[in-house]
What we know:
Structural class: alpha/beta
Number of helices: 14
Strand order of the largest sheet: 1-10-8-9-7-2-5-6
Amino acid sequence: MATNHSESVKDESTSTEDKKNMACLILARGGSKGIKLKNIKPLAGLPLIAWVLRAAKDSEVFDSIWVSTDHDEIEKISLEWGAQVHRRTAETARDQATSIEAVQEFLRFHPEVDIVGQIQCTAPCLHPWHLTHIGRMLRDEGYDSVFSVSRRHLLRWSEIDHGTNGSVTKPLNLNPAKRPRRQDWSGELSENGSMYFATRELLMKGFFQGGKVGYLEMAAEYSVDIDTDIDWPIAEQRVIKFGYFGKTKPQGVRLAVFAADGVLTDNQIHFTLSGEEFRTYNVSDNIGIQKLKDKGVNVRIMCESDSGIHQKHAERLGVPLYVCPGDKLALLEKWRKELDLEWTQIAYMGRDIPDLDCLKRAGVGGTTQDAPDVVHTCANFVSLNPGGRGAARTFCDYLDLMMRQADACAAYSS
Length: 414
């Protein structure tokens, strides 16, 4: 028995009376064959897995959010984005292991879980309201399993057996004498692979679907397939327009502030034999900053001290440098008021403990790959590059994407 649930109803309420424990589980093995380490490859500025983790967390549907992996880097990024990690055994990490085997292993380690919501990393356009809708179906409406589908208008024909003489193709879902017009045909529902929710009982028997079965129909703009490299740029454009960028509606960034030490440099101080100090800067970072300026973003650099080197670099960039040995957040607040900005219109990229308050307060907080873990936890964006090695460029590219998302949202709602 299957019941139609269209995503046109964006109900964000969930039952508080049901006691069933629902866990989100994302299977993210390190041995992806199609695209190497696909699950953490940057898509529109974020690791692929981060898009679904953010939606899962903000849905507030789950009692816990887990990533099942066998890879250290996937584990690290998953923890940074607020997930707990289940380390797969060698048995379920092998190439031949099935998804149901990985889910069953997780359930054996977590007897408290009653329902598993398995979300695919390759669903980057997933929104929290997709999940709240399914959560209600399972908790309040008595469904045992729910999965996501998309509507397709494909006229299907049988495959020809080229080894058999006279083999011909035959129509599978149409009458060639009465070919339907698209507008006259509702199409067919197909699994899109984004989500599979089911009870423990079904999963331990080896079924993703069974009992009282329902589905959530996802509109085409939210249904994304990423299997090969050629799918990547298409998915990126889809995410920019239809992806979920967090609880705050995307706004155009008007002020971008970069910490000099550890972000624009590699956090090291070099000296010549004569005792002169020098630093190194990254040309790619400079290009990214110039791109932001060209888009009308007010760019500023902040440092705790300067021997004159940062000032010379800032002058080359045409960007003001501010020396702030004390409260960086107070200075950022002063700029916000002077420019009459919302915090959501401010981006800040820092690397260390003195940057924490700014990262927490800014609408978009970014940091470098080599920043301390406590800084990673506070940032919205963690570059895959270390400071002075292109980290600022990746943050600039991410801000550019967010501004394009804001423009798309404005156009879509008008």
